[in-house]
């Protein structure tokens, strides 16, 4: 083999970590494959939101006001889909990855905590795109006609991105600090509580006035009601839901980066 001008072979190995974006992309692809192969997680992320949408849209079990039921429900169900994928499913999955030593092995690689968070968030966004397609088609078949124009759609996408980042960071915080069994119980409990209190299927103005400021500060409430105001009511985009989700994202990411443990 003919050496180069510097006296080294052109095939000389160059050891070192891959660029961060390549590590994140590879990890995100692996996370996505694991999520799509998990039947229980697909039940949580796909089937339950669609059943809630169809069931409450076609029956009078809940009093949802005078407008079309599907118009009120669809934004809340979309927010629930984000919660179920980015928080509940991810917290449980990551908790058991930590228990079985998967995260310990990842910790021995150059992938940082930030890289792991970014990869899991990208995988969640890919699943959510499929969720939104299924839920959106179902809602349209039920008579949903969103009121938002291009600016409103862009605003809703911003809310979804912020909500996904917030729930992902909170999921990693929970999974990285609690035992797997505790994470399983806590994540499901949070899911049920936020389903009832977070403006998903019940408007928050029906709760006592004293607790409404607390409910409005919840990330799922900001996501659900922010999208509902634009998609169902045709209102102009508001800053408050963006601010709430941005604060949860910043706090969750900082705490996860500080306290997340690989084992």
UniProtKB/TrEMBL annotation:
Pfam family, one: ABC2_membrane
Membrane-spanning ranges: 42-62, 74-96, 117-140, 152-173, 185-204, 238-260
Domain of life where this protein originates: Bacteria
InterPro entries (alphabetical): ABC2_TM (IPR013525), ABC2_TM_bact-type (IPR047817), ABC_2_transport (IPR000412), Nod_factor_ABC_transporter (IPR051784)
The keyword Glycosyltransferase belongs to this UniProt entry's keyword annotation: no
Main location: membrane
Assigned GO CC terms: ATP-binding cassette (ABC) transporter complex
Residue ranges annotated for the ABC transmembrane type-2 domain, each copy included: 40-263
Subcellular location: Cell membrane; Membrane
Membrane topology note: Multi-pass membrane protein
GO BP term, example: response to antibiotic
Keyword annotations of the record: Antibiotic resistance, Cell membrane, Membrane, Transmembrane, Transmembrane helix, Transport
A molecular function GO annotation: ABC-type transporter activity
UniProt record similarity statement: Belongs to the ABC-2 integral membrane protein family.
Protein name according to UniProt: Transport permease protein
